[in-house]
Amino acid sequence: MTVEDLEKEIPGLIEYTETMPEEIRKKAFVKVYPPGKLIHQKDCELQFFGIVAKGENRVINEYENGKIYMIETNRAIDFIGEVTILAEMPRTSVTIEAVTECTVIYISRKDAETWIRNDQHILRLMARRTAFKLYRSSYNNGLKLYYPPTFLLADYLVRAYEGSLSEQTDTVFPENGAFILQKIRERLSEELGMNIKTLDRTIRSMQKNGYFNLTKGKISFGYEEYIKMKEFITTAKG
C-alpha cells in the first residue's frame, strides 16, 4: 500500500499529504497496526513522524509502578510524533496504542522537520490538531476530581454513543437498536481513571437505576437510556 493508494481510498487525507515534497513522498511507507498493538512508546527516541490515515488510538502515560493513565483517544486523521517535533525534544512523552486497526503513513523525522520548516500548510494543520487536543484536555481538566463516578461513567457512555452514531455498524447497533460498549472492565477502568472495585459498584448502581443493561457482561442501552443519562449529566452539573 502506498500514500497514493490511501489518498484514493480516503479523500480527506489529501489535505494532509498534498503538499508533501515529492522526494519525501517517494521515501514514505505505510504500516498497519492491529488492535492492541503499540504504535509509539514513551521515552523512546522519535525516529519517524506519522500521519494516521485510518483507525482509532489511545494515548496513555505509563509509570514505573506499572500504573497506566489514559490521557485521551484520537481518531484519524491524526498525527504521530507531532508534539515531540514541535517541542524540539528527542524522546517521546507518551505511549500510543491502537484501539482499532490503524493505518499510518511514516516519513523520517529529518524529512518531517524539513517539510514542516518549509511548508506553512502542514505546520498549520499540526498546530491546529495540537491546539484542539490541548483545548479538549483543558476543557475537561478536573472532571475526574470533582464529579462522582456515576457522572464520569454517564458522561463517558454518552460521548461513546454520540461518537458511534456516524459509524452505524452492525456490531455497535444490532437489530434491537441497542448500543453495546465493546470495552473490557480493565480498559474502561483505565480510561475513566477509577479502580475496578469502584467501577463495578458504579455499574451495578446505574444498572439498578435503569440507565443501561448488561448484555453478556457488556454495557448496552438504547436511545431512551441515552436521553436519561444526558438529563442526569445536566442535573449533576447544576
Describe the structure concisely for a colleague.
The protein has 238 residues and is α+β, with helices and mostly antiparallel strands. It has eleven helices and eleven strands.
Helix count equals 11
Low-confidence segments: 168-175
Largest sheet data? 4 strands, antiparallel
Proportion of helical residues: 40-55%
**SSE class:** alpha+beta
User: Outline, from the CA principal axes?
Assistant: elongated
H-E string: HHHEEEEEEHEEHHHHEHHEEH
Write down the overall mean pLDDT. Answer: 88
- In what order do the strands lie side by side in the largest sheet? 1-8-3-6
Give the N-to-C terminal Cα separation: 51 Å
Q: Report the count of strand segments.
A: 11
Radius of gyration: 20 Å
Content of β-strand = 15-25%
Note down, in words, how this protein is organized.
With 238 residues, this protein is of the alpha+beta class. It is 45% helix and 22% strand. It has 11 helices and 11 strands. A 4-stranded antiparallel beta sheet has the order 1-8-3-6. The protein has a 4-stranded antiparallel beta sheet with strand order 2-7-4-5. A 3-stranded antiparallel beta sheet has the order 9-11-10. Helix 5 packs across helix 6 and helix 8 crosses helix 11. The chain is elongated and about 60 Å long.
List the helices and strands and how they pair.
Elements: H1 3-9, H2 14-17, H3 22-25, E1 29-33, E2 38-40, E3 48-54, E4 56-62, E5 68-75, E6 78-80, H4 82-86, E7 95-98, E8 102-108, H5 109-118, H6 120-140, H7 143-146, H8 149-164, E9 179-180, H9 185-192, H10 196-208, E10 213-215, E11 218-221, H11 223-237
Antiparallel strand pairs: 1-8, 2-7, 3-6, 3-8, 4-5, 4-7, 9-11, 10-11
Helix pairs in contact: 5-6, 8-11
